[in-house]
Structure prediction request, 527 residues.
Amino acid sequence: MSDLRDAAMNSKAWPFEEARKLVKRYQKAAPEKGYVLFETGYGPSGLPHIGTFGEVARTTMVRQAFEVLSDIPTKLICFSDDMDGLRTVPGNVPNQAQMTEDLNLPLTVVRDPFGTHDSFGAHNNARLNAFLDDFGFDYEFASSTEYYKSGRFDEMLLVALERFDKILEIMLPTLGPERRATYSPFLPVSPKTGHVLQVPTLERNIAAGTIIYEEPDGERVKVPVTGGNVKMQWKPDWAMRWAALGVDYEMSGKDLIDSVTQATKICRALGKPQPETLTYELFNDEDGQKISKSKGNGLSMEDWLTYAAPESLSMFMFQKPKTAKRLHFDVIPKAVDEYHQHLRGFAGLDEMQRLNNPVWHVHGGTPPASNMVVPFAMLLNLASVSAATDKAGLWGFIKRYAPEASPETHPDLDAAAGFAVRYFHDFVAPKRQFRLPDAREAAALTDLAEQLRQWDGGQDGDALQSLVFAVGKAHGFDPLRDWFKALYEVLLGASQGPRFGGFVALYGVSETVALIEKGLAGGLLKA
Prediction:
């Protein structure tokens, strides 16, 4: 363990860099609460999306790294801000009229438009929990509604009431003139309508722990700030939560930089140290627009798992959290193949290199062996040329290429074959555009087909790749990528494709000859 810890103290992998902040935080003594608390936040005003998963996955990676560096126990809570009022109706849910009727109610009171749970908040919380459970995350779910109503926040809410003016000093300079005039860190929950009201605090009684506000109908109402009778505004609420629970680490998106700044100041004003934080870049959809729960754009968690195994998603989340990335269907094949590439190389690495390898973080230090003897990109092309409608249609080719493989002994490969067929039919096939070769390309293809007819080198992908190279050079392709681009466009209907020698080895030499002949004759134009 000491050797591993020494290597981890010098690892450049970002989770270890983050974890070392916490080691420094508690280098003199462990926290009084007895554990280091990691938190992730979720706003259930919209359905959980892949960015929500990414935050939990990345926080878990930092937690795992810290557990290598320290013997202090850890805990991760996934906190749902489900007492927040519904301000707008998400565009991707049914029963829009019903949702409109429930505007301004706490999310745990808004009726579930799907009709499966007691409230919209409960529905979205269940979706989040089910998905995180499927991934095997070690976490505790926390509900804002439950924490407010059970009194878990009462002590800190009374501190916030006492330090009301300090909170205003922090918040008011960040607001516009109109909102500044009516701003209060406390949002009373109306005993008349149940709405979470954004109204001024007219009077405060610190000794009694109460505030007075005015209802929309003009009535002045006194309520305690404890027991779930008020909900704090977003930034003070975040700070209050940090202070009340003793949160040690939380990451958030670039869009919340200002919120982190103000919440940090408020947490200090409440007399508690702020957590260590990380700001990550946001995911964009294929058009470069920010992914939003309310818009429902970009990939959902379910979308990714329709076409790839969950480990590939975790792999995607690990890579460069401070760099903006587009998150759409086209990234899935690359993520799958990169995951298995790192997995295959893991066994041959030294301790430090292993700690820097993404799969160490994806699997908490104990990655499995990869049995993907055929890359996912290759399976996609195999599905294309073989017109496979299910994974069984690919296994005949796979077994000829790798006789030792079977669905039982290579479950990852079996699953990937199914994903590949599905992905091909949904995304690749509709975009394919075959073309006829020009004169030089046709001559080279004819030459390649003839040499493959005479081939006696078996299914050696490297040797076949050398043959393809040699044919391209002999026909004057410079750069050679133009030759491979022609192969892909004429034979596969795409401008990019697999390592062609490996593809021939997998698909079969005689089958490739037949494919070339069909491409030369224009038979693929109808595909």
About this structure: The first strand starts at residue 36 and ends at 42. The first helix runs from residue 2 to 10. The radius of gyration is 29 Å. The chain has a mean pLDDT of 93.
